[in-house]
Write a structure and sequence with these properties.
The protein is an alpha+beta fold. The protein is built from two helices and ten strands. The chain folds into two domains: about 70 residues, Outer Surface Protein A, domain 3; about 80 residues, Ribosomal protein L6 (Outer Surface Protein A, domain 3, Alpha-Beta Complex).
Length: about 170
């Protein structure tokens, strides 16, 4: 947080910034992100709290510039017998996760989904926070099992397996 006030942001030429009242819109080739800058005009009790709010806004502004220019990608792998992506329909992902039924998950409009393999799900979005929330929602249906190593994992996630019971 100390270096936040010294850091300069380089904005690429294809990024367009517009300010309307307290909302800053960052527009790029992949989409638009809206940021609220209303905290600057409000009065806080301490300078430290304002400094923290500024640092948070600065980081989210950096992420917005990267997101609209390049985009963010999260890859989920399905490890285990019978864990797979069955199909991706208009607004739903159909998953087979070892239950007696399929799991249907509604895809938000701000996320693009593709499945190059049955055991790999690729999520793309402009907003990193919303992408991480959606990927953790998918993971919550089958969290990785630390004894058997099965479940939904992030790509290249290393899972340390525990030992089972000994006789």
């Amino acid at each position: 947080m100390k270096n936040t006030f010294k850091t300069k942001i380089q904005i690429p030429p294809n990024i367009k910034l517009t300010l309307n009242k307290n909302i800053l819109s960052v527009t790029g080739r992949f989409g638009v992100i809206y940021l609220n800058i209303g905290f600057i005009t409000t009065k806080y009790h301490s300078f430290i709290k304002l400094k923290q709010q500024y640092a948070t806004f600065f980081r989210s502004f950096q992420k917005a510039i990267v997101g609209v220019n390049l985009g963010f990608v999260t890859r989920l792998t399905f490890v285990g017998v019978g864990f797979r992506v069955e199909s991706i329909e208009k607004n739903f992902i159909k998953l087979k996760l070892g239950f007696s039924h399929f799991v249907f998950i509604k895809i938000p409009f701000y996320i693009k989904v593709c499945a190059p393999k049955k055991t790999l799900l690729v999520l793309k979005s402009v907003d990193k926070q919303l992408l991480k929330e959606f990927s953790s929602k998918i993971r919550s249906f089958k969290l990785p099992d630390i004894y058997r190593g099965k479940g939904i994992l992030y790509k290249n996630q290393i899972l340390r397996l525990k030992e089972g019971k000994k006789k």
